[in-house]
Specification:
Elements: H1 5-8, H2 35-65, H3 70-82, H4 88-98, H5 102-119, H6 125-153, H7 159-187, H8 192-213, H9 224-236, H10 246-253, H11 267-278, H12 284-295, H13 302-327, H14 329-348, H15 354-381, H16 388-417, H17 419-441, H18 444-448
């Protein structure tokens, strides 16, 4: 059906479309924020106050308070980046299998909350390793089902923008957490235990909001129930023997994880590009340690670096989400890594001061705003509806594993050649990775995911 200009303005509807009229189904609906996404954003905000308050002090806690080496920090930061990869695909598969992501998400948030308790007693490398691993496994369990809930609650025409709203709320917490850590360290020198107690309290609040206020939505194709009923009627009427035909086998196989999912048009290329770029994404803690080593500012100011990055992230999350919906999600994803490259090179320059440091924080925040929610939106768009959480979990797994490898490798590289040279080396490699990923995605992904 077509609409004339007068009909769009409240007039009468024409029987025949005038030349060049736009089909009604192509008219982009107005953006409407789902309450589900709002509450999920609140959950992420509270959880990020918890996690980022710890992350903001962890580099100093490990290297200064406990006296461990940068290699030890690289291992722990690698676990922080990649331990969640152990369970991401499995959690996504479990979410798709039961068709209701909320219980899986609750399990993940609950495990991270319990890990916060362990921080109160962990005082050595191996104890910290166990606690950080448990926390990141919890993150791996919760992320794919949470993003699946966002996808099914969002308007398809504004998918990246909805993810941007969630990431904005998420990063309000990510900025608040380091700010709390900063004030605690200002008031209580070496007050790491106080930071850990506050972290546990916010994690518990996040779990409570998720359990009490987020509905247990169903994912998958909307016509799944009707199809299952018709198939059951067909079998009962004798039109086919249950479990014997190839069609029946294929129908039952749709509920399980298939590696063929990774060969979905565009998804395989996206995972390859995300893996290449993830291998060259150094953890924030290392970038901030490079800045601190160059400028030699007092350690109590260190958490503010996380605050600055996350403030930029939350300010740019929605604008870059809107840009991704209009200009192309894959293009914005690549552009975000160009910003990361500029951050690396600026951090390596032997010119200190407030200006270069702030510029690094802006570039790093822009990188996250252009890649985090945009990658989730792009992966969900390229994944079949009945495999939504599995596809999201696959993308998150690739990123987590590659960034874990990057953190461990950069810790060794720093130890061998020093911070500035290590940053230049990774920057040069990232420049090559950006070019390779552009050519990898320039086909169906760049054109097919433009909106």
């Amino acid at each position: 059906m077509y609409l004339s200009m007068s009909d769009r303005n409240g007039g009468k509807k024409d029987q025949q479309p005038p030349p060049g009229a736009e089909p009604a189904e192509h008219v982009t609906p107005r953006f409407r924020l789902s309450p589900v996404i709002l509450w999920l954003g609140v959950v992420s905000m509270l959880t990020d106050v918890s996690s980022e308050s710890v992350s903001a002090v962890l580099p100093l806690y490990i290297t200064a308070f406990l006296g461990l080496s940068t290699i030890a920090f690289g291992i722990l930061d690698g676990i922080n980046q990649g331990a969640s990869a152990i369970v991401r695909i499995a959690a996504g598969y479990a979410s798709d299998r039961i068709g209701r992501p909320k219980p899986v998400a609750v399990a993940g948030y609950g495990l991270s909350m319990l890990a916060r308790t362990g921080l109160l007693f962990a005082g050595g490398f191996w104890a910290l390793t166990a606690v950080v691993t448990a926390d990141r496994v919890g993150k791996g369990i919760r992320t794919a089902p949470r993003d699946a809930l966002i996808s099914v609650s969002a308007q398809p025409e504004h998918l990246a923008r909805h993810y941007g709203v969630h990431r904005m709320l998420d990063n309000i917490g990510a900025a608040t957490g380091p700010l709390l850590a900063f004030f605690i360290l200002m008031l209580i020198p070496n007050g790491y235990t106080t930071v850990f107690v506050i972290s546990l309290a916010f994690a518990a609040l996040g779990v409570a909001v998720l359990v009490l206020l987020v509905p247990n939505l169903k994912t998958g194709p909307k016509d799944r129930t009707e199809k299952d009923r018709l198939e059951k009627d067909r079998i009962e009427k004798g039109s086919g023997e249950k479990g014997t035909t190839e069609q029946d086998k294929q129908s039952r196989g749709r509920t399980g994880f298939r590696w063929r999912l990774l060969r979905e048009p565009g998804l395989g290329r996206l995972l390859m590009a995300a893996g290449i770029l993830g291998l060259l994404t150094v953890g924030d803690g290392f970038i901030f340690l490079v800045l601190q080593a160059r400028d030699a500012f007092a350690v109590q100011w260190f958490p503010l670096l996380y605050v600055g990055t996350n403030v930029v992230f939350l300010l740019l999350a929605i604008p870059l989400g809107r840009l991704a919906d209009r200009w192309g999600k894959a293009r914005v994803f690549i552009l975000g890594h160009v910003a990361l490259l500029a951050c690396y090179l600026l951090a390596a320059v032997p010119v200190g001061g407030l200006g270069p440091t702030l510029a690094c924080l802006v570039l790093l925040g822009a990188f996250y705003a252009a890649t985090d929610g945009v990658l989730a939106a792009l992966a969900s768009q390229l994944t079949p509806p009945d495999k939504l959480a599995t596809g999201l979990g696959s993308a998150q797994t690739v990123v987590a594993l590659s960034r874990m490898t990057a953190s461990v490798g950069f810790g060794v590289l720093w130890f061998a050649v020093g911070p500035a040279v290590a940053m230049v080396v990774v920057g040069v490699l990232l420049a090559a990775g950006v070019v390779a990923s552009w050519f990898l995605l320039r086909g169906g992904v760049l054109q097919g995911a433009a909106a």
